[in-house]
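User: Second chain of the day. Same drill as before.
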Amino acid sequence: MKLIRAELLKLATLPASWLATALAVILPAGVAALNSRGDVPRGVDAGFQPLAVGVIGAIVLGVAAVSSEYLAEGAESGGGRQVTTSLTAAASRSRFLLAKAAALSMTVASLALVSSAITLTTTSLTGTTISTAELPRVVGVTAYWILTALLAGAITLVTRSGIIPLTFFIVNMSVVSVSFLLTKVTRLANYLPDLAGMRMFLRDLRGSAEIAPVTGGLVMGLWVVLVAAIGVTVFTRRDA
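Assistant: Same format as last time:
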């Protein structure tokens, strides 16, 4: 628990955490409010589609949680990297990574729940009724955000830099979905982590395959386990 508390404290003090919080909480609610003012069709996913955009905040947090370990500290601290201090305190690389994953999951889960409450409330206040029967989909949103953050963190663990994973995720989520374009080429692209994971809470997702919410979650979870295994292997075999 001490390691988890230490990782939670590190996350709380990261400047990127404030940006991640703003993106996770404010962005989805803003999109929901804008949708209510336009001619955007309000289907079964009203209120939940903006939460698919808010996952950008979880991505930023996942990348920052890992990449911050490799940033050089100030001259007053010897110019070393945080990861050296972290591993000295943890005495085990596996315990260090588990504590970081736990802290990241807890933080992202809290953001997802808060963001879901604000976004769905905004959607309801602007004229679209959200049935209580749909509230279990919030669990899907939370799981999707956590798995996405862990995936982003695992990729960052391999690259040791946040630039590559952050650029890819942001472009894929906001500019053009590479995953969606690939579905036009092969049905297997529907089982890429982002598209499969969104099945946990979106019901009107465009694609060429029908995937049940539980199946989508399991597929995304397997992707996270695979990439995390690669990240852990690389991390344990190289110098800090």
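The mean pLDDT is 87.

User: Great, on to the next one.
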